[in-house]
Design goal:
Blueprint lengths: L2 E7 L2 H15 L1 E9 L2 E2 L2 E2 L3 H13 L6 H8 L11 H16 L9 H6 L13 H10 L9 E3 L3 H4 L11 E9 L3 E12 H23 L2 E13 L9 H14 L1
């Protein structure tokens, strides 16, 4: 039996660590809710040793993933220059999208693609830029809460009879003002794999929130990730025991 797990922390790395250690005991949590509230100019507080330990374990398990590469599927931070107009980011991402699609893992698309070209089906000009719409709506002084949301899941594409599909696990993203000038971002996942994806998911949502806060004239103050099912995935506890011991040791050293 899997039970609800709620984690609230100032430090994003510690939040992930607590969720991971819980999942090492019970395998799944239904649902898993993680909230982070510690930011320095839009950047989440981290324990770099924890992120490095995850990346090392991901490499040892030959996942071809890192926390950064997972985060990039939600928000491509290396393409964003806050000093330039946001359209530069959108244009740069769309220009590299054909190359992104050549990676088999992106055959169904990426999260950022769905955010800025929802409904894209071979003609990018016909995709809906949901982030642009949210930002424009905000600056027109329409602060209706239901206007500040973006869909990822597309039933026209994603309702299939495949036994395994993989994408999209992230279903929906919402933004909410926190008075007086804060912005909270919340991501909703159907399923989230705590070892392979969760840290990168949290990082990507924070980066997306930072971008949106910047463009809306606010400051990122909270990231919440809600997973209908938080899971260890196909990894046994034994296979992740070294990582578990590293995380426990790091938490002791920083306490």
């Amino acid at each position: 039996m899997s039970d609800l797990l709620v984690v609230e922390e100032i430090n994003m790395s510690v939040a992930w660590a607590k969720a991971f250690l819980h999942m090492m005991e019970v395998s799944e949590a239904t649902p898993l809710v993680v909230t982070v509230r510690g930011f320095n100019n839009g950047v989440p507080q981290e324990v770099i040793a924890i992120r490095e330990a995850i990346d090392e374990a991901l490499n040892e398990h030959a996942t071809n993933l890192s926390c950064h590469t997972v985060a990039n599927t939600i928000f491509p931070s290396s393409l964003w220059n806050p000093k330039l107009e946001r359209q530069c980011l959108f244009a740069r991402y769309l220009s590299i999208l054909p190359r992104v699609h050549r990676d088999r893992r992106n055959r169904y698309g990426t999260y950022f693609e769905r955010l800025i070209a929802y409904g894209y089906n071979g003609d990018l000009s016909k995709g809906t830029n949901q982030l642009e719409h949210i930002i424009e709506t905000w600056h027109r002084n329409n602060h209706r809460r239901t206007a500040l949301q973006a869909a990822i899941f597309d039933p026209m594409k994603d309702h299939t009879h495949q036994l395994q599909r993989g994408f999209p696990c992230l279903q929906h993203v919402t933004f909410a003002r926190q008075h007086p000038s804060g912005l909270a971002v919340t991501g909703f996942y159907a399923t989230q794999y705590i070892f392979e994806r969760a840290y990168g998911n949290y990082l990507g949502l924070c980066r997306l929130g930072h971008f949106m806060a910047h463009e809306m004239g606010l400051k990122l103050t909270q990231m919440t990730c809600v997973a209908g099912v938080g899971s260890r995935g196909n990894y046994s506890r034994t296979s992740l025991l070294d990582l578990e011991q590293q995380i426990r040791h790091i938490l002791v050293t920083i306490s």
